Please model this.
Amino acid sequence: MTAYAVDERGIYRGRPLAVARPASTSEVAAVVRACRAHGVAIVPQGGNTGYCGGATPDDGGRQLVLSLERLDRVLDVDPVAATLTVQAGVTLSAAQQAAAARDMLFPLAMGSQDSCQIGGNLSTNAGGLAVLRYGNARDLALGLEVVLPDGRVLDELRGLRKDNTGYDLKQLFIGAEGTLGVITAATLKLYPRVTAGVTAFTAVSDPAAACSLLTRLRGRIGDNVTSFEYLTAAALALVTRAFPDLHVPVAKDSEHFVLLECSATGEEGRQGLEAALARLHEEGLLGDAVIAQDERQRRALWALRERVPAAERHLGGSVKHDISVSQGDLATFLERAADAITARWPRARLSVYGHFGDGNVHFNVLAPADADAVDFRARHAAAISDCVHAAASALGGSFSAEHGVGQLKRDLLARYTDPVALDLMRTLKRALDPDGLMNPGKVL
Ligand SMILES: Cc1cc2nc3c(=O)[nH]c(=O)nc-3n(C[C@H](O)[C@H](O)[C@H](O)COP(=O)(O)OP(=O)(O)OC[C@H]3O[C@@H](n4cnc5c(N)ncnc54)[C@H](O)[C@@H]3O)c2cc1C
Model:
């Protein structure tokens, strides 16, 4: 059972009573009913790639891990309705491939896509690399099938675009991290396949300039801006140190960079996108920039962004944060958080990057270069996180933009959430799961 007992980052180690691997919705329901009859808690587990310990049981030896991995069938791809229906254990990359095989696009994408599952994506309301254009997992869900904590099956597996018949119940289970029921299948939105794309990497003068660039770019090509990722020179330096085969292709003396991707489905294609970028360059909004000429170059640019977490791990790990603030407050947040950290830990290193287009930034803090990283985190992580979360909260921001709450951020939810909202969450939890058997100790 070892693989099911430890989380992705090896922070949480549980001791499961057992691991159940049902292969159908009715088997999931049977497991849930049996657990209820015997008062056994259930921890749903998808691809086990979550960052908050949500899929790891406690160490009491009394919680059952319910793995969805055998519910791995693509049930339907409908290019006319532009919908995809899959069982919850289908991996994200398998869902993408099923759409592509019918010349359609399922746009959710992230570094963990070969392992994470649609059920896990929905349960964490995952974000990823194309939220700017297509939204997060919640925005892509049309219908769900859910096994409720009492073993009944809620069948809302419909692909209707419009349906105003009372409460939108599926929303309760999206982002609930397995605390209200087990998602067993989903109907998802598809989009036309992208026919042209431009990926560019550019230096910018500061975070405010990055925000202006995004606004102007969207003014020119609207929703065709798919990704807009910000990186500091310090984050890139970690990547090129940990992965010497990677190179920063533009002005090496700049402190701030943007990786952006635009895509089009119509006639205008790549030329139209390149013309828009050329005009922004003439206006001085794009600094020293490169445009990928082929897929190999595109992958090399994306590697600079995608390998930041691995580079941090390689160099001893970091105190991680997953902040969101409103777009207009991003530059202020970065300045205030950096000031707060350097005032108390002047030699700590900052690794700042993220999905800038979504107002989401990973503001990570590494130990001074000559300090022991594990010891530094053990002594300072809590105080560092307090500073960063206070800076976000003062701007009305969130302490968890896309990774969820799990067990890692449960105390933060209690601290930073409006008491009325928290009370409503507890009321819903009691109503759906009166015995408290669905993923106890997570979220609430
Ligand atoms: C390299 C890497 C890159 C990542 N990039 C991103 C990113 O860009 N954006 C992002 O948002 N996240 C990212 N993540 C985090 C993670 O991949 C996502 O949170 C993902 O959605 C988790 O899916 P999973 O199937 O692995 O879920 P798990 O980790 O197995 O579970 C996550 C939570 O959902 C619950 N759950 C799982 N399946 C079900 C189900 N069927 N029914 C009910 N509850 C369920 C679990 O109990 C747990 O609380 C990344 C992770 C890695 C390792």
